[in-house]
Amino acid sequence: MITISLCMIVKNEEQVLDRCLNSVKDLVDEIVIVDTGSTDSTKEIAANYTNHIYHFDWIDDFSAARNYSFRHATGDYILWLDADDWLQENDLVKFKALKQTLDPNIDSVCMDYYVAFDPLGQPTAVVKRNRLVKRSRQFQWYDPVHEHLAVSGNVIFSDIAVSHGRVHKNTERNLRIYEGVLAQGGILSNRQLLQYAMELTANGYYEKAIEIYQTIISDPTSYFEDKLQSCDRMAHCNHELGNKEQELQSLLKTFNYDIPRADYVCRIAYYFQENSDYEKAVNWYLLALKLEKPENRLLGINNMAWSWFPHLQLVACYGKLGQLEQAYEHNEISLSYAPNDSNILNNKLLLEKHLSKRKDGS
For residues 279, 282, 286 and 288, what is the CA-based torsion angle, rounded to 10 degrees? Predict the structure, then answer.
């Protein structure tokens, strides 16, 4: 059986660190914590789980800190997590089974990353991450922010998921790092350029972000997934700026780079729904329901668009159109995803009441 070293970099994570470490303490053989300057009780919490606690002087470079943490690992494989990550019980069970059976010739295990959850507690944003890597391969992290772990060799995909529950955001810090790189004459890669634009978006610099998204879209060397994300984020910027026509055109542009995907199709449907054009919204939501979900997308997927969201929005749209039978049908499907959801149950009662009145009056 393989041994696993957990490697983490932390700073002021007293709110979440215990949850993270407690969820994996029975899985890993070693815990390596690299602290980059905590002023709260982070190090005291970490000390309850490990003696391997190290300090790293922060130099505005996440990759440097992560590579430093990897150098202290001694296990056969390295598992990396952020402090606001954790393993849910079913994923812990599957991970323990993987540990028992993993072929030592495997170089990396790619796992799901549940970045966000919907109101029903189901994962919405899901991305893939090379989460467990063979220590002897000495894989390295790259980029100072939104860092990535470059792996090669024998990589397998697992259905094990790491869950993420962000408590605080630090987008100004990330933006400052990018601005610092540019101020020193640095050149951002295509991947970094997209992340920089997304940081600008998160901080409200919509016009500047749109310029970069357009640059990415126009670049023939840009990866098609980056172009798709640029279209989506550009639509968001235009929405925030009140540029309705540009918002729609940005969303429609996604069809230039891939077959229709339910997440973008739902965005288009919601555009028409927001503008009270319910017939068009209905047709776009119905299209979304016909689309197959792509598998093993490394850059993420919004599960809501392939499950309950189109149905629930169709309830609202059909209701506005007075087509209550269709609204009721889709509300029942929504209820199958969340049998105890109070809003959906309330929809059911209201629709049954109105349908009963309509039947009695006919």
Answer: 120
Do 183 and 129 sit in the same domain of this protein?
Answer: no
Sign of the Cα torsion 284, 286, 290, 293 reads positive
Residue-wise pLDDT for 131-180, tens only, equals 999 999 999 999 999 999 999 999 999 999 999 987 666 668 899 999 99
221 and 294 in a single domain? The answer is no
- Model confidence pLDDT, tens digit, residues 168-219: 666 688 999 999 999 999 899 988 999 999 999 999 999 999 999 999 999 9
Show the domain range for 22.
Answer: 4-164
One domain, residues 240 and 123: no
Residues 85, 199 within the same domain:
no
- 158 and 14 housed in the same domain: yes
Is residue 263 in some structural domain?
A: no
The domain tally of the chain equals 3
The answer to whether 124 and 307 have CB atoms below 8 angstroms apart is no
CA distance 6 to 76: 11
Interior angle at CA 294, CA 263 and CA 220, nearest 5:
80
Burial of 16 per CB tally in 10 Å (0-12, 13-18, 19+): buried
Q: Rounded to whole angstroms, how far apart are CA atoms 114 and 150? A: 21
Strand blocks (E) in the chain: 4-10, 30-35, 53-55, 77-80, 85-86, 108-114, 125-134, 140-142, 148-150, 155-164, 301-302
Q: Give Cα 233 distance to the centre of its chain.
A: 14
Cα 160 to Cα 24: distance, rounded to the nearest angstrom: 13
Cα 280 to chain centroid, rounded: 29
Q: State the Cα angle at 46 between 45 and 47, rounded to 5°.
A: 90
Residue 268 lies in a domain: no
Kindly report the pTM of this predicted structure: 0.85
How far apart are the C-alpha atoms of 204 and 191, rounded to whole Å? 20
Distances (CA, A) of 110 to 73, 129, 155, 293: 19, 5, 7, 19
Among candidate residues 223, 258, 293, the one where a domain is terminated: 258
Q: In terms of domains, do 160 and 175 share one?
A: no
63 within domain boundaries: yes
Tokens 């939104």 correspond to 146
